[in-house]
Predict the 3D structure of the following.
Amino acid sequence: MTCTTPHAPNSPKRAAILDGAVKCFMEHGYAATSMDSVATAACVSKATIYAHFSSKADLFAAVIIHRCEMDLTNEAHWPEVGTDARASLSKVGRLLLSFFIQPDTLAIHRVVVAESARQPDLANAFWDAGPGKSCSKLFDLFEELGRKELLIIPNPIAAALSFAHLLKGEIFFCRLLGLPEGTERMTFDETVETAVDLIMKAYAP
Amino acid sequence: MTCTTPHAPNSPKRAAILDGAVKCFMEHGYAATSMDSVATAACVSKATIYAHFSSKADLFAAVIIHRCEMDLTNEAHWPEVGTDARASLSKVGRLLLSFFIQPDTLAIHRVVVAESARQPDLANAFWDAGPGKSCSKLFDLFEELGRKELLIIPNPIAAALSFAHLLKGEIFFCRLLGLPEGTERMTFDETVETAVDLIMKAYAP
DNA sequence: GTCTATAGAGCGATAGAC
DNA sequence: GTCTATCGCTCTATAGAC
């Protein structure tokens, strides 16, 4: 059992605490979130939180892992690889970029990056449960594209990472900083199209 | 004059405060940094800080802009564009990725991203003084490569952003999260080489 | 397990002497 | 301008009743 506390993981109070804590941490960050505000948001007393989680840092770690578990890889929206590489990449590209710029994804990214320097274990757990896992799915896709000879890919890992980082372009960073809409110089569609174009030019048979 | 306080911008105490605050904010983040710790780091009293900066948020904004001013675009290390597109891209790629993964760059990125949701003005100022300015330099480079017909670039902005985001790949994110060395699946050299290869394949005459 | 109440420490910001 | 001293508040975590 990998439960972080000796308590029932399906306890309704525990779930309420996690839900309340997610909102607080995402909105205000780790340090600026008080256990009182979590208690209020979860409609429980502060002492109840400490009955389920040994400290604020422990609660934070549980929240992050909890969020990762409802993540991209579990949504099973990954499209099938057909016979058209460009169409497959476009579909996956739109899916990935949509996910990247979701407000919740951005909020998680902000708090984890901010705290990773002070909580290295959390950063590792986040990597394993989040980006690391999503990357594996993308590796599989590129390997399949190579196996079906729809693309010629000497190094599927380099290709998959290139595609992912082309997608996670300027639009992601602008949203992450909360800049006014329109600051980015490439739209959603242009970003996906540019990424797909580059990959196709580099790896098309 | 755009000085944030009515005090002499070259005051030695003011400089000491900024230097001390940079270290504190970068190491501990915004919320976890106390004005007392800044005072200690700067070897001044807390009241002196408030004589130069009206609030903690004001000090933080001044620190971020101060850091951006000693940034990439002011170092004038940008290489000349010769007659070899691949060599130029490699040189610039190594320069950019080196800059991206500097500890100070990572630390600034962490704190600004973390606070941007709560201090939108700061995010805008950071964008203008930092990434926005660096991007312009990169646009110029790609336009020159196009003008010299070393590359065929229909859209220099898309090409420059693609190159930048290919470079700012997995290695940057792993360092940002403080993951153990070796977690990333592509080395520094492989990242630069992959980025240059993709751009060359897409835009070579 | 869950609550109310509170301990004990640290915070941002200021008053007043010099 | 710079200091020491302190105010008023909020914080994490716990004690003790039920």
User: Anything to note?
Assistant: Confidence is low (pLDDT under 50) at residues 1-7 of chain A. Chain A touches chain B through 51 residues (CB under 8 Å).
